[in-house]
Design goal:
InterPro entries: Peripla_BP_I, SBP_2_dom. Keywords: Signal. One of its GO terms (molecular function) is carbohydrate binding. The radius of gyration is 21 Å and the shape is elongated. The protein is α/β, with parallel strands linked by helices and 371 residues long. Helix 3 crosses helix 12 and helix 4 packs parallel to helix 5. The protein folds into 2 domains: 174 residues, Rossmann fold; 152 residues, Response regulator (Rossmann fold, 3-Layer(aba) Sandwich). It is 40% helix and 20% strand. Strand 10, helix 10 and strand 11 form a beta-alpha-beta unit.
Length: 371
Amino acid sequence: MILSRRRGAALGALCALALMVGACSNETSGSGGASSGPRTEPSLSFVGPGGETPTAADQLSLTPEERQKVKDGEYSAAFVWHEGSALTKAVESGVRKEFDQLGIKVLASTSAEFDAARQANNVQTVLALKPDLIVTIAVDPTAAAAAFKPAVDAGVKLVVMTTPPKGYKSGEQIVGIVTADLTAFGKANAEMLGKALGGKGKVGYVYHDADFWFTNQRDKAFKDWLGYLYPDIEIVEEAGFSDPARTEDIATAMLTRHADLKGVYVAWATAAEGVLAATRQQGRTDVKIVTNDLEANLAADMVKGGNVAGVVANGSTRLGENLGVVAAYGLLGKKAPELVVGSPMAATKDNIADAWRDDYGQEPPAEVLGN
């Protein structure tokens, strides 16, 4: 989810983070392959959950005077997260880095573990500490609209990663939204899979089958760019899922039906774990997998030359720094872009160390490097 989308419970909650049972699949005839007419280059544009227009993160800026004004304000903040994964911790480390430079004191950091009621309780807990701002991502956008109303009424500045409470608008109830460039994820995945397959072959498309703007746009961008860049790569089967725990069964059936399958796109890393398990179970070392959200097990398989050909990483620490800057906009009363997007990074065997540092702000663990 930024937003990823990391467990079955995550996505069930956010889609009701779908951010993150059963699956539906159907045979397609060359849906990702060559077309009879001229191909049109896909658009790299997209919109936010409320139709917000993206602004590149490099357009954010604070003058030295503005930074000093924030420091002089002796402001405080709290984190009200949806869950406590490595991704969330990496984002928070980026925010804290920016807050340290701005003199913003962190009062608390809470995790709802994808429970909307628990997030509502966490809002009340941190409000008792009287923070000037809250950094958050909604577990359930509808429930969050009511849960965060006391914060809005109290004048607390809300800065959102990826998913805002339903009906909350940038510049009104929230300062702004910060996420990653969604269509860039799709294009990068298409490029990595195309390269891994030498530009031709049959592939499967395992997408997030829920109404969730973040994953929907990433998935669609992959499909559009694959068809445009690699007309000799054919999507022979599409399968949707709502529960990542079901993807091993989906992939097993897909591999059984298509002995000549050479690649699979999966919406995000947790779901890709099931696809990887299915390829291993069937001894299909020839099948290449691409997905989103850098994660240790998939990275280790990639480094060892396994099934995973590439993973698009979120740039989580950079995303966190952007959240910190947008928070400063709110404290200053400075109008922030309604949707700030950072660029993801395509992680492959060749650049895994750099990608890991960019995503998590630290050196990759030994198991990722194959040590």
